[in-house]
Specification:
Blueprint lengths: L3 E3 L7 H4 L12 E3 L6 E3 L4 E3 L7 H4 L8 H20 L3 H5 L1 H19 L5 H29 L6 H6 L2 H16 L3 H9 L8 H4 L4 H6 L3 H14 L47 H27 L7 H10 L1 H11 L6 H16 L15 H29 L2 H28 L7 H17 L14 H6 L14
Antiparallel strand pairs: 1-4, 2-3
Helix pairs in contact: 3-6, 3-18, 5-6, 5-9, 8-14, 8-15, 13-17, 13-18, 13-19, 15-17, 16-17, 16-19
Subcellular location: Membrane
Protein name: Major facilitator superfamily (MFS) profile domain-containing protein
Membrane topology: Multi-pass membrane protein
Amino acid sequence: DPGHHCQVPVNESISDIIPVDSSGNYEKCQIKSLLTNQTTPCSNGWTYGDEFDSTILTEWDLVCDDNFMVDLSSTIYMVGNTFGALCLTPLSDKFGRKWVILSFLWIQGAIGIATAFSSNYIMFTVLRFFIGLLNMPIALTTYVIVTEMFPASSRSFPSVGINCSWGIGLVFLAVLGYFIRDWRTLQLVISVPNFLTVIYAWFLPESIPWLIANRKFKQAKSVAKFAAKMNRKNIPSELLVVPDQEMNEAPGAGQSQEGLLNVKVTKKYTVLDLFKTSKLRRYTLIMFYLWTADSVCYFGILFATPQLHGNQFLNIGISGIVEIPALIICMFIINRIGRRRPLIFFLLLSGIMNIITIFIPTKTDSGVDLVWLQITAAMIGKFGITGAYSLSYLYSSEIFPTVVRNHAVGLSSFFENIGGISAPFIVYATSGTLTYIPLVLFGVVMVIGGTLACFLPETHKKPLPETIEEIEYGTKKSAPVTENTHL
């Protein structure tokens, strides 16, 4: 919103027609009749500030009674994320990581370009829903393929470090937004890069664990040889022996996996198994809360940032920059002092810094500007939530046993997106007058999360649990396993 007020009729003075509010600013949604001296809602449209050439708000007059529609479009985008996580992400288990990522990127790019030519708000919002629908499968599958490319001993660095690209993307978005003040042009510019990934069709390898799990042994052998060649390594020939049976024939129930692991599938686990035992139930509920809290606070702070005092482009850019050191710190400390203590620290840091923003005045009694201090506190809060968010992802991949890990992470992602859906509405409900109230609310949520994280176990330097019995009793017990165990 570049600022707006009712359009002033020709030959009329703005000071005579537009009433002034208690702060000395022109009312945004009322106009005064010179005949009756009564104020009425705007009837001839609005006049907007010149900060932007065009935004969806100025183009479709999403102000006054319709101002909720701006945040509604963001919420519908997050709803698309939720449906995508639930319905489309599992496609990567069937069709492979590589082609799900690439095909979704290309489709998303095409929809993004179409969005730039939206003729009305409904078309814009519907297309944004589909952009969000593809966004979560791209993000989650990318995270999966990165974790599958590295052995457990080296996995924490890339699993956390990959999130730096998100912060870099925010910085680029702030720069692009500063120089491109027309929303349609900006939408085109941020959509076209999706198609640069066409070259990945030749260079991005498929996940070897996925290929082996789906009995595509020849392709797995090819990828392994390619990796060895790139890294100038030699692979022992016995590791490249391809089974003689049909390469793509899936094993039947109870059949062993060609000697890769001599186990049988004797039981199928469901989401309900996450709640049947005390320890696993506690871990599950805490992780569900943390994923919801991380999401609502991260996206809430992100959506609230442009409403903070100061330059909105600079605020967004800084919010992206502070993510990078948070993730770099995470990469180094989680291998030294573990996961739990850094997670608690980042949660409490974010919570406390967001809460204190409400106690920092915009100016002192002597007129000294303290906006910079408010922004600093909010950005430190963003620093904290970035670290906590990234650690929650890593924690979830390590705390749940193999037999229910896919169910747990999938359901956690559902709660993550519920938090993302609610974030725009929380910001909208307090926009204009109570700018810092959302930050305080997010801060309280984070402090509660930091407290709950104290009841989680440390997972650093511990083998991944395979069965529910290992979680409950702390020892390996013979228990049925599922096909997921082969990964």
